[in-house]
Amino acid sequence: MAKMHPPRVFSGTKSPGEVEVFGRLKDDPHTRSWIVLHSLDISTHRSQLAGEADFVIIVPAKGVLFLEVKACYSVRRDQGLWFYGSDPVPDPRGPFKQASDAMHSVRRKIAGASPALAKVLFWSAVLFPYVEFSVEGTEWHPWQAIDGNRYRSQSIGLIALDILDHARSYVSQHPGGHWFDPGSNEPDSDQCEMIAGILRPDFEFFESPDSGAQRRKQELKRFTEEQYTALDAMETNHRVTFEGPAGTGKTLLAIEAARRGHALGRRVLLLCFNRLLGIWLNEQILDLHPGITAGTLHGYMLSLARLQPQPDSPSGFWENDLPNEAIDKVLLTQGGEYAFDELIVDEAQDILTNGAYLDFLDLILIGGLSSGRWRLFGDFENQAIRGDGRRRIDETLDHRLGNPPRYSLRVNCRNAPRIAELIHLLGGLVPGYSGIRRADNSIEPEIKLYKSKSHQVKLLSTAIKALRDEGFASEDVVVLSPRAGSSSAAGELARIAPDGLSELRLEASSHQVGYATIHAFKGLEAPAIIITDIEKVDTPLARALLYVGISRALDRLFILASEESRQGLLGIIAGSSPA
User: 313, 382, 462, 550: most buried by Cβ count inside 10 Å?
Assistant: First the structure.
């Protein structure tokens, strides 16, 4: 596999053809030991103030190939002017001269920086991935033009090697090529690194952490706002469930629904199940207090009942005692102080299966659940990892809530496409996502198998380092596990290297990698997720937990799994149920 600089394609890349070529160059087995620079800015262009090369491919023992990609669906030359697709602006130079000029500019820079590299072969070519290009011209050799037929029928690595072989033969036989030794194995591996090192200052390898965070925030905001049509479509209905798999923007839609209710003068209660998500929701609507009350269902009930839970409170306290205490408090005050005009519930799948929770919500909503105004958002297909799943949710919706209108959300606006595909396979989504809005970063989720506890801790440390090397800030990386605290791989690594990781707390700023359970991180997301301690995937609960963990990742995903889980994971990736 080629060493790519930068290691991934960001969403700012306008050409889908370049994104595709990037992936093929990266994954082609013939490009092993190659160095490929994408979108090289040329500050010392020989005929322009500045220029750009789509791809600079450095091939050991062969040379350096400049590849210009014209990913248009039509190309024509009229009176010496080139036209690409529907773009009305002509190109007077043409793609072959553009690639040649870029190549000569960089070759001059390389030779000036290191005379020892002056005899390395440099050449150029043009790729038309979507059209048939069979025209002969005096400005290029036929083997310098790669059209769609050749591109689709042959390895990109073999095509590049063929062009460089033709170039070596041509230069060695040309009268002006006396400087070139066809028997030379230049550039060797050291020279390849030297060439890349000389060119490296002229382009940006990584976004800064701040730039990457801002870009992701803007993307997610823009893509989720496209989903606001769901709220518009259901506005006339007082009671609606919005259902969708992970990544379809349910949490941000819940916040927008709460904001809209507040704008209309309603007193709104916005609830979720998980503590970390509750903290985050409250931060998002701070400017709308006290018109909107936000947090977890348990937290709100505790505040009403004025109770302090014990660290070891049994599940019965949370599922029965607490809601009953909160109900008693509401009844004693006759409800007026705690009456809300509208109820918004995120993570509804974790709340709908508990009758005591529903009794409490029924009391505090004006009109109750049967006649009041509410919006429920949930992944009713795959995320019901508490209770006994979809059957009980359907019973609640049909019988207790009167079979309300349901709106299906199917566009993934959170995850990079290759992560979204793994979510699809793992969740067995039927139907699948109707669309994926994020651009493909050409990076596959990475699965690492561990043989022992110490081996997993080492793999975790290596994964964290790799993400930092890619430019991710520590706070952009979250480690998730089915296990809590010190029993997890992250807990063990934190014990060994306490400065590197800390338990995740959204209330406190941290410049460390955070770790938490998969349960605790439900409803949230992070640019990079590392999932650890995956021992098995052959039960519905194990798969549901893995599904939740995977779907938290925006851009990068590592899964650390035991050797024993190999077959199950292979089954998932192949699109079948694990054995």
Answer: 550
Average pLDDT over residues 529-549: 90
- Alpha-carbon span 560 to 449, nearest angstrom: 6
Using alpha carbons, list the distances in angstroms from residue 72 to 67, 142, 171, 511, 545. 15, 19, 31, 44, 43
Query: Average pLDDT for residues 212-241, to the nearest whole number?
Result: 82
Do residues 351 and 273 touch, judged by C-beta distance below 8 A?
yes
Three-state DSSP class for residue 72: coil
Q: How confident is the model at residue 203, as a pLDDT?
A: 40
Q: Which fold has domain 227-412?
A: Rossmann fold (3.40.50)
Q: Would you say 564 and 535 are in contact if contact means Cβ atoms under 8 Å apart? A: yes
pLDDT of residue 202: 43
Are 243 and 349 within 8 A, CB to CB?
A: no
**Please, are residues 157 and 67 in contact by the beta-carbon 8 Å criterion?**
no
Second CATH level (architecture) for the domain 418-573: 3-Layer(aba) Sandwich (3.40)
The encoded tokens of residue 261 equal 């209710």
- In a 3-state reduction of DSSP, which class is residue 89? coil
Residue 558, both tokens: 């590592």
For residues 377 and 343, the answer to whether their CB atoms sit within 8 Å is no
Where do the structural domains in the chain lie, given as residue ranges? 3-202, 227-412, 418-573
Q: DSSP of 419-477, one letter per residue?
A: HHHHHHHHHT-SS--SEE-SPP-----EEEEESSHHHHHHHHHHHHHHHHHTT--GGGE
**What confidence tens digit (pLDDT) does each residue in 24-44 have?**
999 899 998 999 998 776 544
Q: Which of 47, 39, 42 is nearest to 22 (CA)?
A: 39
Does residue 201 have a pLDDT over 60? no
Q: Determine the Cα–Cα distance for residues 270 and 127; give it in Å rounded to an integer.
A: 53
State how far the Cα of 380 lies from the Cα of 383, in Å rounded to an integer.
6
Same fold, 227-412 and 418-573: yes
Cis peptide, bond prior to residue 6, ω within 30 of zero: yes
CA distances from 249 to 2, 423, 432, 546 (A): 35, 15, 15, 19
**For range 467-492, the mean pLDDT:** 91
Cα dist from 318 to 105, 357, 387, whole Å: 69, 10, 14
Q: Write phi, then psi, for 438 (nearest 5 degrees).
A: -70, 150
